């Protein structure tokens, strides 16, 4: 039996969804994209162009819910299946779009470079419990106008796993789409084997900017999966209660779903988000707060109730270092996310309110993910009945270390973490140098990056990616791309 957790009964989910629909039809949504406003008007929505405002209808919402796919599959750069985003299947991916990287030697944060990004991508390629990569860092050694497309370029060039990403501007979407076409070879192949998920974020409360709404439109037109990242902040730009924040999150996410499905009925989507409570003491948005995690799990229940695959920013920490708080918040979030059946869990590696990536934490978090994935496999009998023969053997041999039953099921039943997790007795730990968690994680980062195997993407495809990225870089004054080492 798969263990699970629930926070909302069905009748409360129904009430939340009803209230959200009332907001969309009664209060409406602020939307700063003339083309999207026109499209909504053409489908029967009431639009006030002067105020950049639209009121949806129950019919429009119902149509969007009917056409949205109930599942989504992602494929790696070689076209092999990588993620099954359906049911209660759980996959982990690093958090996204950090402005800083944590230096192990100094415990200080700094802006990342292309070299840092390549090192990160090589590391993720070796972490078996992270099913996809993300554009986790924003390289500071390229112009801001190409930072989004450049990090996708690096991910596709260095790693093989599918990528969770997003565009910072309307113009850069075209480049990011072309990079995916360079890998897949055609629009038809990209539709059949999606390679990325784009994060598209409404603004709280109930608002879509020109850029983000256009990103939703462009992704739908090209059958590129979208995860809607609604970010209500409980007690600041959302009601202080968790239920009130869920009403707002539902309304904002449904409004994005409507845009996608009106552009392209059947466009692939994820019911996602990155909400948080607002800590009035420090004026911060703690992603590691238990209430934040509760909102994440609860809105995933709403997404599943609506029949949609789900995503959440969870399994991350607000700590500034790789310390006990980092492990506590990440571990609790990962367990809850998996028990809730969130399909795509974004967060490993992240610190400091989603603003910093630590490679050492990413290695530790990979082990947390491995433990959690073992947890959700649950407990089941494996030739345990009748029990009498096993215990007769135990009483005779006084141990079962080399028993046939042990050898057959040891690896299935027991998860064995890597060297980052210390399971030695104290005398052995002392003999091995009394290494701290941070030291073990740092050593493991070096080992895994050193064992990196280059992507098997064909050379001509890699050259095509580089040509497209070089052409874009020249538009913004770069004669050559940064070195990748």
Spell out the key features of this protein.
485 residues, alpha/beta, TIM Barrel, 5-stranded parallel beta sheet, 4-stranded mixed beta sheet, 46% helix, globular
Tell me about this structure.
With 485 residues, this protein is α/β, with parallel strands linked by helices. The chain has a domain at 66-377: TIM Barrel, CATH 3.20.20. Helices cover 46% and strands 12% of the residues. It has helices spanning 10-26, 34-42, 58-67, 114-125, 147-158, 170-184, 187-192, 210-221, 242-263, 290-305, 324-339, 359-377, 388-397, 404-413, 426-431, 437-450, 459-475; strands at residues 29-31, 46-48, 53-55, 72-75, 81-85, 91-93, 100-102, 109-110, 133-134, 163-165, 196-200, 207-208, 226-228, 233-234, 269-270, 276-277, 311-313, 344-346, 350-351, 356-357. The strands form six sheets. The protein has a five-stranded parallel beta sheet with strand order 9-10-11-13-15. Helix 12 (359-377) crosses helix 16 (437-450). It is globular, with a radius of gyration of 23 Å.
- Estimated radius of gyration: 23 Å
User: Number of helical runs?
Assistant: 17
CATH architecture of the domain at 66-377: Alpha-Beta Barrel
Shape: globular
**Can you list the strand order of the major beta sheet?**
9-10-11-13-15
Beta-strand residue fraction: 5-15%
Q: How helix-rich are the residues, as a percent range?
A: 40-55%
Largest sheet features:
5 strands, parallel
The SS-based structural class is: alpha/beta
Name the CATH class of the domain at 66-377.
Alpha Beta
- Count all strands and give the number: 20
CATH homologous superfamily heading of the domain at 66-377: Trimethylamine methyltransferase-like
Unreliable stretches covering 5 or more consecutive residues:
none
CATH topology of the domain at 66-377, by name, is TIM Barrel
Average pLDDT over all residues: 97
Termini separation comes to 47 Å
């Amino acid at each position: 039996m798969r263990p699970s957790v629930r926070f909302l009964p069905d009748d409360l989910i129904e009430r939340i969804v009803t209230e959200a629909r009332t907001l969309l039809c009664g209060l409406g949504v602020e939307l700063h994209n003339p083309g999207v406003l026109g499209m909504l008007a053409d489908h029967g929505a009431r639009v006030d162009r002067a105020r950049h405002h639209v009121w949806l209808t129950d019919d429009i919402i119902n149509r969007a819910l009917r056409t949205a796919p109930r599942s989504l599959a992602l494929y790696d750069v070689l076209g092999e299946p990588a993620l099954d985003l359906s049911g209660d299947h759980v996959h982990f991916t690093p958090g996204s779009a950090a402005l800083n990287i944590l230096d192990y030697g100094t415990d200080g944060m700094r802006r990342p470079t292309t070299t840092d990004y390549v090192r990160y991508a090589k590391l993720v390629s070796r972490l078996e419990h992270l099913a996809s990569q993300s554009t986790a860092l924003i390289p500071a050694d390229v112009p801001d106008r190409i930072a989004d497309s450049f990090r996708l370029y690096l991910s596709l060039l260095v790693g093989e796993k599918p990528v969770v990403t997003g565009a910072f501007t309307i113009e850069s979407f075209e480049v990011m789409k072309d990079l995916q076409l360079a890998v897949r070879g055609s629009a038809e192949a990209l539709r059949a084997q999606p390679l990325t998920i784009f994060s598209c974020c409404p603004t709280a409360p109930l608002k879509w900017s020109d850029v983000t709404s256009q990103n939703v439109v462009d992704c739908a037109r090209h059958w590129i999966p979208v995860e809607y990242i609604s970010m209500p902040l409980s007690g600041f730009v959302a009601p202080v209660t968790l239920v009130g924040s869920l009403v707002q999150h539902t309304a904002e996410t449904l409004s994005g779903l409507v845009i996608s499905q009106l552009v392209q009925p059947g466009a692939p989507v994820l019911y996602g988000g990155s909400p948080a409570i607002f800590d009035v003491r420090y004026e911060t948005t703690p992603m590691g707060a238990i209430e934040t995690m509760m909102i994440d799990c609860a809105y995933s229940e709403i997404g599943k109730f609506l029949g949609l695959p789900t995503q959440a920013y969870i399994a991350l920490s607000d700590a500034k270092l790789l310390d006990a708080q980092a492990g506590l918040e990440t571990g609790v979030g990962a367990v809850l996310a998996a028990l809730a059946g969130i399909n795509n869990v974004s967060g490993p590696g992240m610190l400091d309110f989603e603003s910093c990536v630590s490679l050492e934490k990413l290695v530790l978090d990979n082990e947390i993910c491995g433990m959690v994935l073992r947890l959700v496999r649950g407990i089941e009998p494996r030739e345990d009945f009748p029990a009498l023969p096993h215990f007769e053997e135990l009483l005779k041999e006084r141990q079962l270390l080399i028993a046939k039953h042990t050898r057959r099921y040891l690896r299935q039943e027991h998860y064995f973490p890597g060297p980052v997790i210390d399971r030695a007795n104290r005398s052995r730990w002392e003999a091995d140098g009394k290494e701290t968690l941070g030291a073990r994680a740092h050593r493991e980062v070096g080992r895994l990056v050193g064992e990196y195997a280059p992507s098997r993407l064909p050379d001509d495809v890699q050259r095509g990616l580089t040509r497209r990225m070089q052409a874009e870089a020249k538009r913004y004054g770069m004669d050559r791309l940064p070195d990748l080492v």
